[in-house]
Amino acid sequence: MIIFIADVRGKGLVVYDSSVKSMCRVESDYMIPTKKVVSISNKKFPYDGGVFGTVTLYDELYYVTTPGTIIYKIKIESLLKCTNKKKTNELTKVAIKIPSDSAQIASAGHSIFYGDADGNAILGTNVFKKSGANTIKLAQNDEKLQGISSLKTPYYWNKLIGLSDRYHLFALGIANLKDINFRYFEMDLAEIQKKMNSIS
């Protein structure tokens, strides 16, 4: 079993391989956010983040830094070799350019799912299709999808599930405690997969 642990404060990844009982830390310049301000629903606040969301898809690890508008990918095999920072930089590739900050990401089939923080939306990108025409907006709701803080694809329930919250309003000191500030949502993963696979 291979476990990847995002080190938000340390701006890196911890890689554990149980088959050989080894653990190491991997760093890359691409694991450091290029800015220290996050934007959710076009409201900005300071946030010193790092690697926030990670998923595996076949033989690659995909990750996003928060704040950040790029999902990167790197071969799992190279991470298991515990490459140094310079080599990790060389092996890291841009997988998806996203419209605004995203926190968590999820995967299923050939697709990566992520939030569009300023658009209050959930997007899906089929990474096996030609870039530029391989992304679909799965849901958008200005009221209910502010700040998507969690996305998961539990195969047992065949759902895309997640949480949205209004943390940004708390960070800015303008939250109304009488409002609904946290929401749970779920979507039919089989239907999503049909849409994602229909991308030409």
CATH class group: Mainly Beta
Q: Quote the beta fraction.
A: over 45%
Q: Which CATH architecture?
A: 6 Propeller
**CATH topology value:** Neuraminidase
Identify low-pLDDT runs: none
E-strand count: 16
Element-by-element helix/strand order: EEEEEEEEHHEEEEEEEHEH
Counting H and I runs of at least 4 residues, what is the number of helices? 4
Distance between the termini: 35 Å
Shape: globular
Largest sheet: 4 strands, antiparallel
Content-based structural category? mainly beta
Strand arrangement within the widest β-sheet reads: 6-7-8-9
Helix content: 10-25%
How many domains? The number is: 1
The CATH superfamily appears as TolB, C-terminal domain
Mean pLDDT comes to 94
Radius of gyration: 17 Å
List the helices and strands and how they pair.
Layout lengths: L1 E6 L4 E6 L4 E6 L9 E4 L2 E4 L3 E8 L2 E7 L3 E6 H5 L4 H7 L1 E5 L7 E4 L2 E6 L4 E6 L8 E6 L7 E5 L6 E7 L1 H5 L10 E7 H9 L3
Antiparallel strand pairs: 1-2, 2-3, 4-5, 6-7, 7-8, 8-9, 10-11, 11-12, 12-13, 14-15, 15-16
